[in-house]
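User: Hi! I'm working on a homework problem where we have to compare a predicted structure to a textbook description. Could you give me the structure for the chain below?
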Amino acid sequence: MMFLSLSRSDRGRFSLLSVIAVLFALTGCVSRPSPDVLKPVALKNDAAETLSVLAVTNRDREAKDGTFGNRWGQNLHYDRFVFSIPKDRNGAAINYPTAKPDPKRDYIVLEREKLSLDALVREATQAARFDGTVAVFVHGYNYSYQEALFRTAQVAADANAMSPPIMFSWPSAASVAGYVADRDAVLYSRTELDALLKALGRSPKIKRIILFGHSMGGFLSMEVSRQLKLQGRDDVLQKLQIVLAAPDIDTDVFQAQLKDIGRIRNPIVLLVSKQDNALSISSFVGGERPRVGLLDIHDPIIEKTAKAEHLTVIDISSLQSSDGLGHDRYASLAKFAGNLDKAETKMRTNGRNIGAFVFDAAGAAVASPFRLAGQLVSPQ
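Assistant: Happy to help. Predicted structure tokens:
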């Protein structure tokens, strides 16, 4: 990033508008999908692979077409979407349908149905391969409803999800300039995500809830977990597996959240990278306060802190990013889900699932950075 190479004094002269200009330069050429991509399409031939995605949002529904913009709503809305999943997928990149959708390369909405909360919980547990686990994806800053929905479909398809994923979409402004507004929208949305997790936790069929928060969605996930703890809802917390991808959280705020939440059954997983320029910008905007997603796992202090705080910290810098900022690497992780499950099981069996690790995309493995460093040193 241009301004990151400047001295501290020079960076101090940069305004927020300068940072926004840099972001526009990086993302301005990327076209964003309109709400039209949510309209169901009737394909002439049956789709080779379909996927159901359950959607929950506190965005205000547009009366004219049933879409969701960036207005903050007073109620939760529940929908079920059925997607046609393309065979010719280009990594984590998403091809949105055009006027002439191509099922070989595009993610396409085939069906859409409004649901109640009870119906959504039933849908989450009725898949033929349901194994007691449901996953809730909470998107980050600068996401529209449709972008979050299609990203959920991509991640679930690549991970070969056992049950329909659940997207929770808070009312992001979906604007580069909307960082502060998005921060407020996250705080506004705590009670709504809290209500969804409680509803899932009440189901005796659901044994584990993977709460996957990306970027600012990680901040929301931690705030809601803290809220559950303060409410005495350990019954829900003990079902949670919290995964924070590139979490946009101040490190001191994160430590305070951990203190309030306390020790829960499943260690919190952090997916981090020192090469995340979006978080570098966030740190700059926030007065150069460090962000959790930028942790350096090669620092022995991080290894020690992770063990003390019951955390699993995984560096995913080896994964490809498609956003030009290195902030969406998590989306490429999904295709390694099976390998990660095996690695996590082995790590847990060996008592080594707490601490700092490196994800090796080439070998689809997780290992201690200190052990890897040792392997690179030739014996004297």
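For your comparison, note the following. Residues 1-29, 371-380 have pLDDT under 50 and may be disordered. DSSP finds 14 helices and eleven strands in the chain. Good luck with the assignment!
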